[in-house]
Every structure is written in structure tokens, then in C-alpha cells.
Design goal:
The structure is a single chain. This protein has a 6-stranded mixed beta sheet. It has 14 helices and 11 strands. α2 packs antiparallel against α12, α7 packs antiparallel against α14 and α8 packs across α13. It is α/β, with parallel strands linked by helices and 345 residues long. It has 2 domains: 162 residues, Bacterial extracellular solute-binding protein, family 7 (D-Maltodextrin-Binding Protein, domain 2, 3-Layer(aba) Sandwich); 150 residues, 3-Layer(aba) Sandwich (D-Maltodextrin-Binding Protein, domain 2).
Length: 345
């Protein structure tokens, strides 16, 4: 009898241990570049390093910035599909080359404010998620903005017309098309290469958010900033569907809620960083998060604002729609029924 009791106890203990092991999660997370700025350093990495605390789940996370992992930031969706990482912090402009619908979240001229960006991203979110699930075996868990993308130049410029003939680093094809219409040459280049390329005169100007530029030392190689918001550089978090489907409903719910909370936090933080970085880059105070520089801030004219506003219908949308429709026949139609309706197109 004692032997039977001992056996039952041993089997029960083994089953409990097996169940505990099954309930624990181990996630490989590919993050934003280490040098891309305070969002990655102060929000994203601490969140994933403490994911168990944020979710209340038994989770072990290995977080690696994309540049530390040696993975090109353009390969985020391919990495997800391969299963090499469970969760990827997607750099929207870069991975949009593999999935054009992502660019529909942030066409040039579409999101000239945080408020507009949130509305337009929410409208097209479900469609982008469906495309990632279909083509890359990945589920979208949240989106957030790196911040308004403005123009930094080595020499003096007075407005958008002065970009003619210049070589401009761009983040995505929509920006390349826009500067091309202005007579400039759009050049795609990893963030980490931009500061040196500006210093050496390989490029004349470059587009990014003020906080990222400050973190990357761009003001050391430039003299002028044109603070006209072209887009918001929408990024996001996505999880491999095999990993997602291996989780319980409770695990899925807690993880999704936690990452949605992180995304909301970054939306607010991004706006705070933008305002502070603009002051820092121009040598104004208060400068709380960045390094002070002395860039010349060019006044934005009504003429330039009109060019950016018109870019959606005249440049961004027509070119993007052809690319996206080639990948998915319903892409433009869904965009017009969602984002387009909000714009009155």
C-alpha cells in the first residue's frame, strides 16, 4: 500500500512538473538597433527584459538589438517567417519592401501629426495584420511611431525646393518618390551608416526623427534642419504564429495586453521626445533627454506645408497603390475604404 501511494505521489509530482514546464515560455526577441535612440533604450529593451513582470507569466526572454544580432533591419519579416526569433520589433519603413501594405500606414503627407497618425494607423491595422499572417506566418501585436520625420542637411537650405540636385537618405520608397518629385535623389541607407556618410559628403541630407538624429550624432555632421513632418516612421511588434498558437489563451491575452500597453506608452513618449529633441538640436532649453547642438532651424512655409499635404494624392498614394495592388489585388480598395474615407478621398 505504501509502495502504491509512493508511486501515485511520484507520478503526480512528475505530471505537475511537466505541466509547469509546459506553462513556461521562452522567447527570442529581435529589437530595434542599439543606437537608434531612447525609445529602444528606455522603453523597449527594459520592457522585454522584464516581460515576466509586465505580463504576470512565467517567461524567459532573450532580447537582442537587430544590429547586435547581425541581422539587416530590412529582414525583420523574413526572420519572423523563418522562426529564428519569436517576436520582432519591426522597422516599418525598412520591412515595407517585403510587405507593401505596411507603407499604407504611413505614406508621405498622410501622418503630419501624432493625432492623425494614430487615427490612420488604427484604420488600416487589421488589413496589415491579415497580410502578415497570410504571407509571413506572423501576427501584429502593436504599432508605434519613431516620431515625425524631418530633413537634416549639411549645407543651408531654405525649404523643400532647395533639395533639388541633392542626395537625400530616405527611410522608405514613399519618401524616395517624394524627394524624387522635388528633383533630389533618394538613397536608402541603414541608420548606422548615415552620420559617417553625411560627414564624408556621400549624401547631402537625410530624413529621420529629431530624437533619433540626436542619438545618432547627426547634428555633428549637419548644419540645418527643416522641421516639416513628412511621416511618422511607424514601427511595430509582431510574433511568429507558430509561437503564438503554441501558447494558451491566457498567455496570448496577457502578452497581447502587455505589448499593446507598451505601444500606447511609446506613442506618448515619442511625442515628448520629439519636442525635447527639436530644442536640443537647436541649442534651446529645456533639453532633458538629448545632447545640445546648434543646428539652424528653417522656418516652415505655407507653400512647403501644401506640398507635403498634396503628396498623398499626387505622389505617395498612386505609386504605392500600384506596388501594393501587385502584391494583393484588394490593397488599394481596402485602404480607400478605411484611411481614404477619413481623408475624404
Amino acid at each position: 500500500m505504501l509502495t502504491r501511494t509512493a508511486l501515485v505521489t511520484a507520478v503526480s509530482a512528475a505530471l505537475m512538473a511537466s505541466a509547469a514546464q509546459a506553462s513556461s515560455l521562452s522567447l527570442q526577441v529581435l529589437g530595434q538597433p542599439a543606437g537608434s535612440g531612447l525609445i529602444a533604450q528606455q522603453k523597449e529593451q527594459p520592457f522585454f527584459n522584464n516581460l515576466a513582470e509586465h505580463t504576470g507569466l512565467d517567461i524567459n526572454v532573450q532580447y537582442l538589438p537587430v544590429d547586435v544580432a547581425g541581422v539587416p533591419d530590412t529582414d525583420g519579416l523574413r526572420v519572423l517567417r523563418s522562426g529564428l526569433f519569436d517576436i520582432v520589433s519591426l522597422r516599418g519603413p525598412q520591412v515595407s519592401r517585403d510587405e507593401p501594405s505596411i507603407l499604407g500606414l504611413d505614406l508621405i503627407g498622410l501622418n503630419t501629426s501624432f493625432e492623425a497618425g494614430r487615427e490612420h494607423v488604427d484604420a488600416f491595422y487589421d488589413y496589415v495584420d491579415s497580410r502578415l499572417q497570410e504571407r509571413f506566418n506572423a501576427k501584429l501585436l502593436g504599432t508605434w511611431p519613431a516620431g515625425p520625420q524631418v530633413i537634416f542637411c549639411r549645407g543651408e537650405i531654405g525649404g523643400l525646393d532647395d533639395l533639388r540636385g541633392k542626395r537625400v537618405r530616405v527611410g522608405d520608397q514613399s519618401a524616395a518618390n517624394f524627394v524624387g518629385q522635388l528633383g533630389a535623389t533618394g538613397i536608402s541607407m541603414p541608420f548606422g551608416d548615415v552620420q559617417q556618410s553625411l560627414s564624408r559628403g556621400v549624401i547631402d541630407c537625410a530624413i529621420t526623427g529629431p530624437a533619433s538624429a540626436n542619438s545618432g550624432g547627426w547634428p555633428e555632421a549637419t548644419t540645418t534642419v527643416l522641421p516639416i513632418a513628412l511621416q511618422l516612421a511607424i514601427n511595430g511588434y509582431a510574433i511568429n504564429l507558430d509561437t503564438w498558437n503554441s501558447m494558451t489563451e491566457e498567455q496570448q491575452g496577457k502578452l497581447e495586453t502587455a505589448i499593446a500597453g507598451l505601444s500606447d506608452e511609446i506613442w506618448a513618449y515619442s511625442e515628448e521626445l520629439y519636442e525635447d529633441a527639436m530644442r536640443c538640436n537647436a541649442g534651446e532649453t529645456p533639453c532633458e533627454y538629448g545632447k545640445p547642438y546648434s543646428l539652424t532651424e528653417v522656418p516652415v512655409t505655407d507653400e512647403d506645408l501644401a506640398k507635403v499635404a498634396a503628396a498623398v494624392e499626387e505622389v505617395s498614394l498612386p505609386i504605392w497603390a500600384r506596388q501594393c495592388n501587385a502584391a494583393a489585388a484588394d490593397c488599394e480598395a481596402v485602404w480607400r475604404d478605411t484611411v481614404g474615407q477619413k481623408l475624404g478621398l
